[in-house]
Amino acid sequence: MKTTLARTLAPAALAAAALVAPAQSATAEDISFILPAGTGCEFRLGVSWTGGNLQTKEFVDEEGNTVRLLVAGKGTVITYTNYGMKPGRNPEALDAVTIRTDGSVTETVTNPDGTLTVTGTGHNGLIMFPTDEPAGPTTTHFILESTSGQAIDICAELAD
């Protein structure tokens, strides 16, 4: 049985969700970024992924505005890394957790009031920024196996 995680998100939260599930075809090349301390977790959070085969389908209205975005495909290998609190050009990894995903589908619908409803099935990560409702910083990776599901609090997992 598949489980759906549905939330209505402000645009900032969607941007965070898009970072974890890129809106493009993923290839074997590594894709990564590091968020500043206090953004995704209290520490500098690195997120990288490799592999997978994600495809994007965009649905537009008569004026050409995106009304629905569908991203689906074979999973990636995602690594979340704790880079501590110190900024710098050569950050030192303090701890990391790697999650092999088996695929997911993420649907983003633009609501009439400008908010976005994001529905994810399968393996999905969600990064909440301090400006989101509810306020972050939090980073959670959802591994949904049934209606009860399982979630990994990445910030707690990587805390010093």
Describe the structure.
The chain is mainly β and 160 residues long. The protein has two helices and eleven strands, in the order βαββββββββββα. The protein has helices at 11-20, 154-158, and strands at 4-9, 31-35, 45-50, 53-60, 66-74, 77-82, 95-100, 104-110, 116-128, 138-143, 150-153. Strands 1, 4, 5, 8, 9, 10 and 11 form a seven-stranded antiparallel β-sheet that branches. A four-stranded antiparallel β-sheet has the order 2-3-6-7. The longest helix is centred in the first third of the chain and has 10 residues, at 11-20. It is globular. The termini are far apart.
What does the average pLDDT come to?
77
Order of helices and strands: EHEEEEEEEEEEH
Strand content: over 45%
Helix content: under 10%
Radius of gyration: 16 Å
Task: Point out poorly predicted stretches.
Answer: 1-28
How many helical elements?
2
Question: What class, by secondary structure content?
Answer: mainly beta
**Terminal-residue CA separation:** 36 Å
Envelope shape: globular
Q: Please outline the major beta sheet.
A: 7 strands, antiparallel
Number of strands: 11
Essential attributes:
4-stranded antiparallel sheet; about 50% strand; about 160 residues; globular; 11 strands; single chain; disordered N terminus; mainly beta; 2 helices
